[in-house]
Amino acid sequence: MTAPTTPRRSTGRWQMRDIVLAVVLGVVFGFVYWALVQAWIGLQVAMGPAGDLAQHVLHGGWLLVAPVVIAITRKPGSGVVAELIAAFVEVAFLGSPAGPVLLVTALLQGVGSELPFALTRYRRFGWGVFALSGLFGGALVFVFSGFRFGWYGQDILLLRLAIQLVSGVVLGGLLARVIVDALARTGVLDDFAIGRARRSTLVS
Amino acid sequence: MSALLAGEDPRASPLARRDPVVKLALVMAVSMAAIFVLDPVTPAVLYGLGVVGVLVGARLPLRVLAGAHVPFVAFALGQVLVNALSRPGVVLAEPGPLRITAEGLEVGAALGLRTLLIGVLAIAFIASTSPVRLMTNLQQNARLSPRVTYAVLAGYRMLQEMPREWAVLRAAHAVRAPLRRNGTPTRSPRVLLGAVFGLLVVSVRKGERMAQSLESRGLGLEPRTTWRPSPLTRGDAVLVVAVVGVVAAVVLASAAAGVLEGPGALGG
Questions:
Q1: Do B251 and B195 lie in a common domain?
Q2: Same domain (yes/no): B101, B38
Q3: Domain extent for B106
Q4: Is A187 on the interface with B (CB under 8 A)?
Q5: Cα separation of A1 and A12, whole Å?
Q6: How far, in Å, CA of B55 to CA of B130, rounded?
Q7: Do B80 and B190 have their domain in common?
Q8: Closest Cα of chain A to B3: distance in Å?
Q9: Of A5, A94, A99, the CB nearest to B140
Q10: Angle (CA) A80 B209 A64, round 5°
């Protein structure tokens, strides 16, 4: 018994290689995020009553995957897709206790992180764009997380926002560029858009 | 790690027979609805029902269920504490420079119990769902592109191999890494970060090979046929009606009893 699935033409611009890259980075970062959660729980215990603030210190780390994938594949939507896949890996395979709500969080993080790249029409990948990516990624999701975790009405709301934004810029923006540059130097990205772009600048 | 990773063959149970996409959607819907509830009583009742649901529906042993609670119980306690200390309101106690308010305690309890509720739903999903079936049904019933579902499945295999990959990398690094007094490799952040980067490089390279092999197997060609269709059944409909009905009944009863509170509670 067979049933044909409805064929839907892909946009043609996403190659299998790009999809798998988003998945692979989602898996690796999912694995590292899982370790990050352990660190976060440890930090939370170590900081005592202020431990709830620890999550903002590490928050930028959750944003990493979007700017990394955008910089490598240079495709519209790739950051959002990568964030969603990373969250899906955490929820469905790693058993994150936050459950599928993480998909909503990931969507907001992805949109925030992707916005600055989209505004440059995926042409500029300087430090500034990465920093803005981390800033927006951290800011947009704060609105939802603040509601989800009941941060509104607390005395420390602005402190939370400030720490999260700094973490977003450093861990979720600048660190992404460091990782992308290091990866590009190893040569594993030669067949992706970033590798082609690098070669064309070398030739010209 | 292995305890954490979703098993390929969840134990036979009523929940394990249900469609994974339906379960995912239900957990999502109830979790999102819970975000709008801000009194301690409603999530506490739902959490209790959730625990019963996991024990009966997923046939999860009590000990396993308790163990799975560890990651988020600490977070829930932190939520109670931080809200009790950081919300303005009627002061209950002032230990040292801190103050504990009644409003803060109540909001904190509501948030902590919500974390428990969402956590137990996530356990119910992960303990009763085979990742492979989840991906095939996402493709068949949620119309996700097979290119995406197969890529994610390949990623799942990769995740299974990742602890081994990590061990290989660590062993390779240990050959040249400076050793501690007792002869074991150091665990300095620098060395660990090097291993994480190595994992990234190895994985990207492996991903490229995976993409090539998936394409060479004809993935992405159309039209596709399905070997084992997995349609939605009456049981799935019953599950949806039961879960939505129970949650609605609890919320309505809570509202009738006058304990239900919405996001307005945050304003203090």
A1: no
A2: yes
A3: 14-134+236-267
A4: no
A5: 30
A6: 18
A7: no
A8: 9
A9: A5
A10: 30
Of A5, A52, A97, the CB nearest to B78: A52
Under 8 Å between Cβ of B175 and B244:
no
The nearest CA of chain A is from the CA of B253 a distance in Å of 23
- Yes or no, beta carbons of A5 and B159 under 8 Å apart: no
Across the interface, of B147, B151, B197, the residue whose CB is closest to A182 is B197
Each residue of A70-106: pLDDT tens digit?
999 999 999 999 999 989 988 888 888 888 999 999 9
Q: In this model, does residue A54 exceed pLDDT 80?
A: no
Domain ranges of chain A: 16-196
Domain-located, residue B205: yes
Q: Which two tokens stand for residue B185?
A: 């490799």
Q: Cis (ω within 30 of 0) for the bond into B14?
A: no
> Quick check: A64 contacting B, CB < 8 Å?
no
Tokens 């119309």 correspond to what residue? B143
Contact B226 A94 (CB under 8 A): no
Q: What pTM was estimated for this model as a whole?
A: 0.87
Q: Is residue A1 predicted with pLDDT exceeding 50?
A: no
